[in-house]
Structures
1.
Amino acid sequence: MEFGLAPSIYHTFQSKTPIHEMNFIRTHEVFSNQRAMDYFHRIHKNVILDLPIYSGGLGVLAGDALKSAADLNLSLAGIGIMWNKGYFKQSFWFKYGQIPDELSWDPFSYPGLILTNKKFKMRIGKDEMSLRIWKYYVFSQDLKSVIPLVLIDSNCAENAEYQRKITNMLYQSDNIWWKLVQRSILGIGGIKAIDALGYKINLYHLNEGHAALAFLERPQGHFAYTCHTPVAAGHDRFSISDLSNVLNQKEIEILKKYGTDKDHKDIVNFTQLALNTTAHVNAVAKKHQEITRLQFPAYKDRIDNVTNGIHTHTWVSKPFSELFDKYQEKIGNWRENPKNLAKTIELKDDPDFRRDIWLAHQENKKQLVETLKFWNIRERVFTISWARRIAPYKRPSLILQNPNMLINIAREVGPIQIILAGKAHPADSHGFANVNEMLNKIASLEGDKDLIKIIFLENYDTYFAKFLTSSVDAWLNNPLPPFEASGTSGMKAILNGVLQISTLDGWIVEAADKGIGYIFGYVPKEGEIGSEQNLKLKEDSEALYSTLRSTITTYYQTVNHGKNCYSSKWIDMMINCVAASGYFNTHRMIEEYHQKIWENL
Ligand SMILES: *Cc1c(COP(=O)(O)O)cnc(C)c1O
């Protein structure tokens, strides 16, 4: 459904034709507890808009997977949709919250995006429509191999006005018909697009249930399926009557046979459908595998696991890639094989490496200081970030639950800088309320700006994700366990020596014994899923504050007295982080997909 390829930060190609001004968002507002500064200053950046066909981690993971597949020279194509209006652009309005603006961009001048001369037709309900096909080539690191990403677009001149808008906005969910048609275009249209291009495909991999209707178009095909979420809203369910407005009777009969929801016989559940029509199923972290087995006990033995990763070359900052090059003799060729980063653990007792990893981090932090200079962000002050999609289970406002506690910690242990960023889905009223609450809490700390600086950046995207995951000291991850299937932003952070402060959920469960930071908060009992509604904000924020107190103490032991202490525990943990990133990358992940699934079906 979505692909986050991040050309703003990796393989940023030039174009011979001028790039339309719409393909840049050059200024970003800031909401902070220094309101006067927000009024006078903006963040300026001169980078191309990310290819706006993703909303968050699911898409970025798909993009990273394609990049590693290209690096490993695998024969594979991605299928997605050309979202003509992207996801949305976020603006803040004080005392109101987030305003979702329509995003306009120009695919024709977007570097690397090509409109092919191939089209195909599809029937949706009573009407037939045309779909055109775009391609975007995803290059390997060394530029020697490519993976085509095929993007389907309903914006054809010969289509009716309403049809031209169907592929406008990703996750437009205010209308069920619309949502279903988008899934039909991805699933059924995806197969038709492959045929129109003449590709010969042996295996179709459904990345999430969104594309499950592909089975209708190719019932004899070989399918594999990756389930990405334990959150109820992540599982698509449609009533038979809604389906009848889009699909024909024969198709409905197939869906009834394979996809009937276990609790409602008039509903088709796409997760159920994918489980029944695919030969291989996997979850995206060990903990997620355990939860998926609890949610779908009938399929227990078939639910395998491949833990997620990130594309090392996309997310490594320049000072860290230079550091890894400098110590290549010990680490090995990390560019060809990022798994070699595990060997940095052997450098733990090397005083030069301990100094150099700290200096590489400070190099990154200087960028943060420079970008936020009007807000007086300082290099030697403890800085923590929470930045991701604003969804209730991720508990975006946890650190702001009790601002007085934050002030006390800052007074007793040392000053604190907090950077926040994230978009809430435009139709998510809880997410909207979260943004509103966060802005109000930030404004309430205006009188304490010498002890604590809080900054909320507008319009989080992969550019800011790389910027923040490499430049802050600690990365905050506080989903309510067990609702984070994996999470990936923390993997970007550890690659750049940024410590984790996290609840025990998703990928963190597999890294908890590696000394990459501090774990806190609620842990569900073995065999228990619990409720997404009971967010445990009070208990877990108290646990977070107490963890912060000890974390910040350790941090200031490293930087205090104007002199750095390279023997500190903090630097031990930074090295543990980098070593752990030898496992949590998409090279390892794609090799597992290849060996466990693609080669065997
Ligand atoms: C990596 C990334 C994410 C994923 O964050 P999680 O930790 O999985 O919540 C979301 N959005 C962007 C822009 C990213 O780059």
Note: The chain has a mean pLDDT of 95.
2.
Amino acid sequence: MEICIISALCLCFLLVGDVVEVEASHHPYRNLQSLSGEQPYRTAYHFQPPKNWMNDPNGPMYYKGVYHLFYQFNPYGAVWGNISWAHSISYDLVDWVHLEPAINPSDPFDINGCWSGSTTFLPGEKPAILYTGDDIKNRQVQNLAVPKNVSDPLLIEWVKSPHNPLLTPIDDIDPQNFRDPTTAWQGPDRLWRVIVGSKINGSGMAILYRSRDFVEWIRSDNPLHSSTKTGMWECPDFYPVSANNTNGEEKFSKHVLKASFKNQDHCILGNYMPMTDKFEVDTDFLDEGLDLRYDYGNFYASKTFYDSGKKRRILWGWVIESDSESNDIEKGWSGLQSIPRSVVLSGTGRQLMQWPIKEIEKLRTNKVSFHEKEVKDGFIFEVPGITASQADVEVSFDLPNLDEAESLDPNWVDPQLLCSQKGASGRGRVGPFGLLVLASKDLTEQTAVFFRIFRRHDNYVVLMCSDQSRSSLREGLGKTIYGAFVHIDHREKKISLRSLIDHSIIESFGGDGRTCITARVYPKLAIHTESRLYVFNNGTLSVRISSLNAWSMKRAQIFPMQNRRKQQINYK
Ligand SMILES: *[C@@H]1O[C@H](CO)[C@@H](O)[C@H](O)[C@H]1NC(C)=O
Ligand SMILES: *[C@@H]1O[C@H](CO)[C@@H](O)[C@H](O)[C@H]1NC(C)=O
Ligand SMILES: *[C@@H]1O[C@H](CO)[C@@H](O)[C@H](O)[C@H]1NC(C)=O
Ligand SMILES: *[C@@H]1O[C@H](CO)[C@@H](O)[C@H](O)[C@H]1NC(C)=O
Ligand SMILES: *[C@@H]1O[C@H](CO)[C@@H](O)[C@H](O)[C@H]1NC(C)=O
């Protein structure tokens, strides 16, 4: 056994049975970590490469005790281009070591870019990557890569198949709209299935292919699903999900089909019949924007994987900058990954619930709590004693008598518009109440994450908003106000909110993860120790905080492996 000294400069990884020592140094990139007064928007516990452009998460997996994340990466700059598959590894999805890119554009079938794709475990637990290549003719084709050495838990080297490209855009397939293969699955007939995102004759769709050997693929007569209302489907994802019942009942087991379009990740739930590959959807993609989305804010091109170690489904999503490209170039990087989220089906079987993975809680420190505190009309108070620019806050509100809630015009159907027009700065009856995040002391900068409850017909409508309109004194930023409804059982008379705050990102989970909204914000004043966190209520009816727990978050250890140390990874 090697002795590994754990220090700020060293990450030590222990594998069951073997010892893999990875020594990593942040030295070359010190100025890019948000340790000092510089780089106020660099995150401390979200996944980021040391520098440059990142977009979609690719091929996440758990293999021989190691989590792998690949991602779309430009090795040469902070803008999109020259896309390769960068590669990082982790033991807990919190601390990461960056390895060398696993797949680079080098062959006629991917020379213009190695675009998104997924990992599948072939028999014998052998991982295989299917990815899109932008080929020498600028056509989108699907390629295969496999590890050079499957005994290496770090899977450092990948080999492209001599059979590439496996899938090409023939017949009615548009060569510019054919990408992002999913994880494949095997049917009862032992044939592999995979879907690829496309748009044909004006409809977004998931083209279905089948294969016996994972090399030769035959297109199915029918797509798995299609829609006239969506445009091109990017990054489709298709997987089973069940309710998080402790008694193991899978009463509401369903399949999720996700497609990325119009800047958000839209989902439909349904029943999949593996014999016939029929997917009967509960509610299809809709015109009005009322369909299910993983996140109603800034969250795109996501991908899930099944974590066989902890028996859970985990979701990663790309969170793009909403600052200008010239500022991205100046700061030297662009793009974040969300905190990995577990995904389960809600008890009603009609929606998904997401929650930050438990492991992230290891970064919590300096806990501050309140209990049974009344927040009266127009009241605002600070949550003191935490680093509000790098924090995790969970709050649960007891609701007042909802009989007195304002009634909502039945014509108000667009929650995002409602949030813009009935924002935090307006007064209401039950709400707006919630958090003011990344706020300056004088409140000239603040991002309000809040609820407001209305009566409609015989029922109640809970609106959740993330209002970036006052998030920064800086000009030239995207400051969209996001909004969505939260489908809670109002008879419980309470609602919870959790926000993960990390310098330039706020990930908020309403109603125990029924509704999620992620925002990027770039405050001018409310940075580092100048940032504050408040609770507010601008409704005339009091709400009660049954409990509030807030923590400062420690920095995750996310470092590149030093090139010169690479040969010193020891296996015993
Ligand atoms: C892509 O790489 C080439 C060669 O390294 C470089 O000249 C070019 O600027 C890069 N493009 C982008 C968008 O990074
Ligand atoms: C493959 O990886 C294993 C485990 O890390 C190692 O022992 C072996 O030497 C590697 N084989 C080759 C050919 O590199
Ligand atoms: C698209 O339209 C063409 C011409 O009508 C037809 O041959 C083809 O089957 C259609 N494709 C799909 C997937 O609907
Ligand atoms: C699922 O259930 C487990 C055990 O009860 C719990 O720890 C976990 O937080 C639950 N996950 C979600 C997403 O509700
Ligand atoms: C509450 O409402 C008042 C009056 O409209 C407004 O000045 C204040 O900014 C609001 N509070 C918040 C947190 O938006």
Note: Residues 506 and 519 are 5 Å apart (CA to CA).
3.
Amino acid sequence: MSSSTHLLFSLLLFSAAATLSPILATDHIVGANRGWNPGMNYTLWANNQTFYVGDLISFRYQKNQYNVFEVNQTGYDNCTTEFAVGNWSSGKDFIPLNKAKRYYFICGNGQCFSGMKVSVLVHPLSPPPSAAVGDVEHSPTSSAAPVGVQRRGFGALVVSFVVICFGFGWM
Ligand SMILES: *[C@@H]1O[C@H](CO)[C@@H](O)[C@H](O)[C@H]1NC(C)=O
Ligand SMILES: *[C@@H]1O[C@H](CO)[C@@H](O)[C@H](O)[C@H]1NC(C)=O
Ligand SMILES: *[C@@H]1O[C@H](CO)[C@@H](O)[C@H](O)[C@H]1NC(C)=O
Ligand SMILES: *[C@@H]1O[C@H](CO)[C@@H](O)[C@H](O)[C@H]1NC(C)=O
Ligand SMILES: *[C@@H]1O[C@H](CO)[C@@H](O)[C@H](O)[C@H]1NC(C)=O
């Protein structure tokens, strides 16, 4: 294989990876441009997003003023960090959502009582069997799932391409 063909494949691959990397993992910035601050209703923010396994949730705030604790539902409901399973305080914390479950985050300095608490439900990448059956004729209620599957499907395509290139010794 000529070196120019090799170069072409490399360029194709790099541009594909650069274009698709933001699609593979969504970074959900808590509170969007208003960040992690008191006086917000983060339930409204969370209800406006769909979270998938592998996505990130990120908290942006004044370092040393606020922080982030991952707790369970009891900690969330009662605003207590007593049973916290993790804590962050950099002011720009990126937390991977690696499991399909409900996550709970609160601020640990008392501001939880002023609204600094957020709970997010993380969905698995593959739709449940019941949703997969309706794949051909999408029901309105399952419209969110296929979108997430689609963006991952695209990522899987790139991975396959990389694997094939390696397999044929193109890289
Ligand atoms: C935040 O909004 C949700 C959804 O509308 C509502 O159920 C909840 O009571 C609100 N929380 C506060 C503290 O206002
Ligand atoms: C919901 O998301 C849309 C699109 O990102 C945005 O325009 C809108 O302001 C959001 N609403 C709330 C309540 O965050
Ligand atoms: C949260 O964790 C504490 C300590 O492990 C436990 O006692 C409590 O039952 C948990 N709450 C929930 C809702 O699982
Ligand atoms: C949470 O708060 C409620 C009401 O204040 C209280 O009854 C309950 O015991 C608390 N739960 C824990 C695990 O502290
Ligand atoms: C924060 O997490 C670290 C481990 O990452 C732990 O050692 C520390 O005790 C935690 N701090 C609080 C206040 O829970």
Note: The beta strands are 27-29, 51-52, 56-60, 68-71, 86-88, 92-96, 102-106, 117-123.
4.
Amino acid sequence: MLIMAVRSAIYSQSIKREEKPGVWNVPHISDVYLIQGSLLRQGLTAKQNEVNVQIKTDSSDEKQRRNYYPSFVLTENPSLDSDMAFSQSLRDNGVFLFLTNLFEFGHLVNSESFVTHHKHNDLYEIYSNQMDWEKRYIHENYSKNLDTDTVIEQPCPDVHWFPVVSETFCKHIIEELENFGKWSDGSNSDPRLAGGYENVPTRDIHMNQVGFEQQWLYFLREYIRPVQEKIYTGYFHDPPRSLMNFVVRYHPNEQPSLRPHHDSSTYTINIALNRPKIDYEGGGCRFIRYNCSVIDLRVGWSLIHPGRLTHYHEGLPVTKGVRYIFISFVDP
Ligand SMILES: *[C@@H]1O[C@H](CO)[C@@H](O)[C@H](O)[C@H]1NC(C)=O
Ligand SMILES: *[C@@H]1O[C@H](CO)[C@@H](O)[C@H](O)[C@H]1NC(C)=O
């Protein structure tokens, strides 16, 4: 069995399975991941890592060629990378290279930028391995939010509510932050801020403290922005900006609640990371102008609401256990 992948952007555009299923004759294949040994064994004379693959073309051996079992001769060619040499040799010998996306064999994980010093390294793979990241960390019903016939829930006036991240995401981000452990002290003095002063302090950890800021901004752009555009018709801001991306920890003995305040945002994202009535009691968000509270929060669901003027709000007291929420002040 021969499995090959094409690296060129031009080709990768045409291989998106859902767009254009088919079989293509291509000039170059960049990687060979698995080759049945019997194909190569005969006449294999590999000398260095960089090898040139040539096909012994022997017209008297037509039968073997028709059976598509050419014998390979590997010789050195320092002027070409092995993939170029391989493709060129095949072309020069009249062997066509084909690519098909009619079958799904799986995919490769991009390990080039993988780091291992976090508790949950996979959380950080949002750009390099987005497909796997989505599967693990995006809520299974996320895409329904974007269906034209889905009406996004609105528990309070202009406060919407939608599923966005998986339970695994919530568990992993909590564990990542508890492992890091440097929760702020909840006082007004905050050296992490430009002015050193926080008017409405919480016990929290900012994403830039755990190296997750860029990943989170990418998340906002990829997964929050499309829902925002659906909810607030006519407001476009791409990419969304956010200087404040943080997880708040509410605890009866530390900080159980948060006094009424506005956010420094155009809109705020507030994702519930754990379960009311199980992991904690009390809690919730109350919008004072409407005397409306969202209390039965759902894990992995985000609230989205305007930050200023109309949505003056408070964090309701947690009476038992620990409550975690993930907050972003988008477009400050
Ligand atoms: C997704 O939606 C289906 C249908 O409403 C529901 O049964 C399922 O529990 C939802 N998945 C999650 C993880 O909430
Ligand atoms: C606000 O709502 C609560 C509970 O829904 C209700 O008991 C209270 O009377 C309301 N307050 C005002 C000022 O309407």
Note: The CA atoms of residues 26 and 97 lie 6 Å apart.
